[in-house]
Amino acid sequence: MRVTGAAHGMGKEMALKLSEQGAIVVCWDISQDGLNETVKEIEEGGGKAVGDVVDVSDREQVLAAAQRVRDQVGDVTMLFNNAGIISCKPLLQHSHKELHRIFNVNVFSQFYTLEAFLPQMLEMKKGHVIAMSSAAGVQGAAFIVPYSSSKFAVTGLMDSLHEEVRYSHSNSNVKFTTVHPFIVSTGLVQAPRIRFNSLTPITSPKKAVETIIDGVLRDREVIFVPSYGEILYRVAKWVILNSS
């Protein structure tokens, strides 16, 4: 199992939870201190983990780190592509550099990790790719336009790739799951201002990971966090479409 963004928030919780279930967890992040803490907690709990400082927006770093993973622990059968960044301000206040950074981390990192690990999964005819999109990846939101756009891209990537693998590798058992959290209280950023705030639940990383793992074990292709989030999304969509 390989988790990106494993130094904090949902990535860390996912690494800890999967370790409890017996998985060897490979943790990637740009924070050495955060990685050390995650690996330490896993090992103190009796689990096995490997930490590696990787900037997932850098293709060469991803490919090199993937080879180190294969050398250290063997083939990876589950990817949790969680790394992501958000900027909460009007679109026109974003610099060119900020826009590129958001898409490099949130979108292109997904392509790089797939390039690194999907061929082996298809060859083995087994594996599971879990990608972190967002509720903002199915419904646009003000003041997080670049982030929302990047998460729509992740949703499209996963939907399209799933269909492509159905056709090109019909006998494969590689699974794909897209996760759409609403607001998760990681403490990294202030909650964005969005429509229907009163309907928008705030979830703890621990509870979010419990929902994700439950959905993954059920082989769900789409997971909303919290689980009733899909209902909230459909209600909000209906209100928007029918408002004057």
From TrEMBL:
Broad class of where this protein is predominantly found: membrane
Pfam (any one): adh_short
Any one cellular-component term (Gene Ontology): membrane
Keyword flag Flavoprotein: no
Lipid bilayer topology: Multi-pass membrane protein
Keyword vocabulary terms for this entry: Lipid metabolism, Membrane, NADP, Oxidoreductase, Transmembrane, Transmembrane helix
Subcellular location: Membrane
GO molecular function: all-trans-retinol dehydrogenase (NADP+) activity
InterPro entries (alphabetical): NAD(P)-bd_dom_sf, Sc_DH/Rdtase_CS, SDR_fam
Keyword 4Fe-4S recorded: no
Task performed by this protein: Catalyzes the reduction of all-trans-retinal to all-trans-retinol in the presence of NADPH.
Family affiliation: Belongs to the short-chain dehydrogenases/reductases (SDR) family.
Listed PANTHER family: PKSB (PTHR24322), RETINOL DEHYDROGENASE 10 (PTHR24322:SF736)
Protein name per its UniProtKB record: Short-chain dehydrogenase/reductase 3
